[in-house]
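Weekly sync notes, structure subgroup
Attendees: PM, AL, DS (notes)

Item 1: joint prediction request from the bench team. They want all two components modeled as one assembly rather than separately. Inputs as received:
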Amino acid sequence: MTEHEAEGTHVKNHNHEDVVLDVDDLNVTFSSEDGPLHAVRGVSYQVRRGEALGIVGESGSGKSVTSMAIMGLLPRTAKVTGSARVLGQEVIGLNDAQFSKVRGQRIAMIFQDPLTSLNPVHTIGAQISEAILTHRKVSRAQAREKSVHLLDRVGIPNPEQRVDQYPHELSGGMRQRVVIAIAMANEPDVIIADEPTTALDVTVQAQVLEALEAARQETGAALVLITHDLGVVAGHVDRVAVMYAGRLVEAGTVEDVFYRPRMPYALGLLGSLPRLDGGRDHRLTPITGAPPSLLNLPVGCTFAPRCPMARDVCRTEDPELVEAAVAEGERNEDPVSRHRAACHFSGDLVSATPEDLFGSEAGKAGASAEPTGGAPVPEAGRGPEPEVGEPEPEGREVLLRAEELVKHFPILSKGVLKRRIGEVQAVSGVSLELREHETLALVGESGCGKSTTARLLLNLVRLTSGEVHYMGQPIQDLSDKQMRPLRRDLQLVFQDPFASLDPRMTVSDIIAEPLRIHREANGSAKRRVRELLELVGLNPEHGSRYPHEFSGGQRQRIGVARALSLKPKVLILDEPVSALDVSIQAGVINLLEDLQDELGLSYLFVSHDLSVVRHIADRVAVMYLGKIVETATTEQLFRAPAHPYTQALISAIPLPDPVKERTRERITVTGDIPSPADPPSGCRFRTRCPKFADGLSDAERTLCVEQPPELLDRGAGHEDACHYSQVVELF
Amino acid sequence: MSDIKSDASNGAGSAGESVDKGQQLTQFQLVWRRFRRHRAAMFSLVVLVALTLFAFALPLVWPYDHGVYREIAGNQSPSWQHPFGTTNQGQDVFAQTMRGAQQSLKVALTVSVMATGFGALWGAIAGYHRGRIDAVMMRVTEIFLIIPLLVAVAALGGNLTGGTTWYAVALIIGLFSWASIARLVRGSVLSLREQEFIEAARASGASASWIILRHLLPNAAGPIIVAATLLIAIAVQVEAALSFLGFGIQPPDISLGKMVEGARTAAFTRPWLFYPPGLIIVAICLAINFIGDGLRDALDPRQTISRR
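Output from the run, pasted for the record:
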């Protein structure tokens, strides 16, 4: 089926010979205090009419700078050389006035943050009309009519009314659709979308990607989709280009790059990605090290310092992006879409798996799970090996138990009186149990109350009502002072590795701080800090450095070391890897798994990323608008989700596998999460529930509207809160 | 622990230092090393030390003090004996300038240290606790902000024991300048306290005073230092204004502000009366501002780019 798909793409490409965007040897250099910074080095690609090209890379790989250069949006201090032709017209070197005729008209851009890319003081209709009126001589009425049409095309309900609303009246997903509508306004030939869905929740992401697809069909434009998410790329583009340290290192059709990567970096990225369709026993294969500084690039191949197959030539000669070695009969003659890779030894990768190349790390760490060695993806549905010598999860001691946690934040009126005019029901009756040596994942979209729940468990936020027991002892009423001894056992790891470390303290001081607070910083503190640094895989000599000298992944390790300094029993991990690039993320996930085995820790893993959860968790609790809607073991939940929300959530996560991603069954939801200040009556999910919308009779719906569903056990510990729950197998 | 193994994969990511020179240095040494790289600050430090010596050490060897001497002829132009000339009454302006610099430095530094210290702490406590504590503390701050300084001094001045000595003047100026610092610090603390590293400290069981002293104030050091240096300049000027109105340091004692005030009509006819004290005020303010700049950068470990 792979070959067939690939063939289909080629035929399509040959039918559209016209290249609308032709980038050739584009270089961007910024001057900085420390010398020239080569953000983009010799990038060349072409895009044909109606085609979608994905550009993937980690932060700092130059993928955004490339598109900003093409759009002429870089500051004047940036030195741009090379060529970029839009419909044959050279755009590099145009002055601003000349560029304005191209921008918006022939080439349009969609930015990452929908909150800041719309002007808050104009209605959305006025902003779309503005885009039209800038380039066309039409009347205001016509422009408005067109605006309504565009809003309708990108899937905004009631466009007639919405057109007169202001940006703040729309949700993030809606706003991003407005931005897409603006991009479509003049039927451009190229649309560049720079991380268009990164700021959005997964269920909304799916909707916005659909709108983007609609925009492409409506305008016939070529799409350049820039993203760090391999899953998004797999499902929505024809061709992929992988960027690393300012260069394209691999390019080809999605099938070529995903199934037959010929550059170790691309292969490594795929191997370091936790997958929704993979099992827990599959250990990730992170790429060691971090991307090089663009100020101080290594001689030769920029990936060589991290590459396990680097040889002498790699350290002296930078490989060109040339046609990749392919098996007989797979040769693609098309000059635009042919498979290219920048590696001296791409031929050696013909049948390599990520484990072959990057797997040595797993053995070194002494992990329980050995690399599977064979195919990179274990077959879906294979359960984890039962652990020997461990009692079943049900038999283990309950460390942390939460009963009916409720947290309402008051909304106060403005002015002096500050009357209470409402409340945000952040958490509304959450009960959960965390057992010894177990990982419980708490998943949900932003605003569902998962982070608040985590803080309630630690008594960092005061409960409105409910009880938290730690080893049988109720802790919700303890004062800060009484809590202090318990804080040794209950520690927290944060999401943002930049904000969670005091920038003015050395790493040693940061890690030793909990010891000092608990007055344990006697002579052995120094040794303990070194031990901890070593434990989390950092060089113990680096303790005197400051946090900013470390990369994101290393900082997250420092955060883990600090949490471990008091030898806790429970770690509450609040989105610990969501701020990290995939190649780094895998290393931190592996570290967390190793630490759990080594130290017997219990994790409460708060995350929005189901792929990571699938990989690390024993049990999962899914939250929606302050309530748990489903809880089950990881296997049960992913194999047979029962709640419509869980099903939609799993469906919305893009798989980094082009064929699976395009053919799998989906359960989609519409709309956005309602405000927790005014949750819907009865079942809180009913406003977005596909089952409520299509699958129920009026009589059945009444129950959903009137009666909040209880969390009921449907057998084998699988609980869900839906009146009409029905198991659906998605894989 | 003697296993000094260098793990290539871990070390590769961070700054290209192969040898960790910073290993044995204390926090203070690190700050000093970064401060020394700041040229303007180092130069200003030298200037300030020179001014301090001029104000406090030189009077010990100079033949005259700021008083009236019968043997000094009045209204003389600068000479070797009286480098800045003499006044109508027969005072040595050079001696007066030294005395004035001494008084002004004492007042300004005292005001700055007292008001900044108290204001920063007050603001940090209010900002950290928020809610009712914050509301009460900030209302108090606002009272101090809205009372006009001169009116308050007029009311207090006579009643305060030793109303004309430098420390009384410093105390009064300080009493009415901490409030702006408190507001400023509260503002930064309100945003800092939402940072995750504050929550991390709370999750480890840190008390409020621990968090305020170890995390909030150090991280608010930038604006605090800038405000403190500005306050020094303001204090010199306010002291001059108070003296002029008769509430500050009183004759026969003298301050720089008072000297400038007295000689302002003579700026063109007898510039040696006006410029030396005026330039010293400017020099003090500039030097302290640059030192503040250097200190702010030196205290911030992220500022590693060396200035050449």
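Discussion: The first helix of chain A runs from residue 2 to 15.
Action: AL to compare against the crosslinking data before next sync.
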